[in-house]
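Go through this pair.

…
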Amino acid sequence: MASAPLKARDTRRCGKADSAPTSLLTGSTSIEGVAASIPPLQARVHLTVKKKGFTTKGYSVVRGLLTSEDMNALSMAATAQLPDPALKEQYHQHGDEYRYEYLLDPPPDVAALVHSTIAKVCPALEPSQSFAIVSEPGSSDQPWHTDSIPGEGSGLSNAEWRSTLHYIGVLTPLSHTGEGCGRTEVKIASHTKGDCPVLVTSALSLAPGDALVLDGRTLHRGMANISENIYRTMCFFTYKAPRFEDGNHHAYLS
């Protein structure tokens, strides 16, 4: 199940710095440098989540879902909405001063594309909030967690929650993620089996434009950023069943 309760996510809009510090996203690299590192724009292809694998494993990786044009727009939006450095501390994830998150208004075209992808997996889920999660050099491995648990007002028992898909999260990085800056590790099939000690784990590396689609019940964690100057930023889109009250307001995100 989810990690121990943490401080509630602050959903207020962050104060903005007079000049957004791009170093929070990309270290010493400028936003133009981020765009240049993304593969050239290619003709849009209709990529979909592999439903069988998603149902069996609790996650699916869609390679190249977003084009370089999409990623440039998403990166610019994330940078423009960075917290004021003077206020950044209140957005830290509990227990890790080098990892923080903030609300994100993604570009409409990007949000629509991600939503259309999720609608092919589970049409009943509706778009919810989006976030940017920044892992600075020095951040630690997160505790294992799920992004969803049944809330007190959901009317669902743990068994009912475990047996039905209510929540999907989509992670896409602004830069390549690897062992140095921190991959995302998942426990395969934990969405149906829970935190079983014999489950196999998989540490996933993602490139800009890739999307990691996670069942909200799947145990996962963001791994430590042991690099010297790479700021790992993941954009996180969430989708929930109508009227489902998610109780995991205190969860760590990946």
User: Anything to note?
Assistant: The first helix runs from residue 23 to 26.
